[in-house]
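QA checklist item 7 of 12: single-chain prediction sanity check.
[x] sequence parsed
[x] length recorded as 186
[x] structure emitted
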Amino acid sequence: MNTQLLKQAEEKMKAALDHLKGELTGVRSGRANAGLVDSIKVNVYGQETPLKAIATISTPDAKTIQIQPWDASNLASIEKAISSKETLGLNPNNDGHVIRINVPPMSEETRTQMVKLIHEKAETATISLRNARHEAINDAKVAEKDKLLSQDDLSRLEKDANALIDTYQKQMHELTSAKEIELMQT
């Protein structure tokens, strides 16, 4: 039972870390990166679809993102979806075949805003970690109350859950620090 509760907590913590990685990929850093736009939802065929599901996204150089839709009739929808994503501050150029986005250099103010944004995303992920730990410990306390776990097992689980969250928090800190350094250097 102990290991099962810890496994569930670890799966949730890993999911939170993976989610944070995806979120950080979408934070603009002054360099062209397909991750900036690949998850933008585009209204095509009457439903919201991630951009990466309807187009090929590439970065021909360090300052340009190129989007080649598989169906040229989606160009206007893609352009509109990118333009409406104000937090990115990107202006798509549609030539009738592909959309090119020139990624402008970021001002100091924009860099500071992006650093705040990554810290907010990291805090949200940290809350998810804490919730996973809290849930595992509460489930163990219920099991201990129902005489399915001993007091020693409960103590061991609490210690292991705390060690687990420390490991994941360290990984999250490393991710956010690396992204912060990337933001401040470009």
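[x] summary fact logged: The helical segments are 2-25, 75-84, 108-145, 151-185.
[ ] second reviewer sign-off
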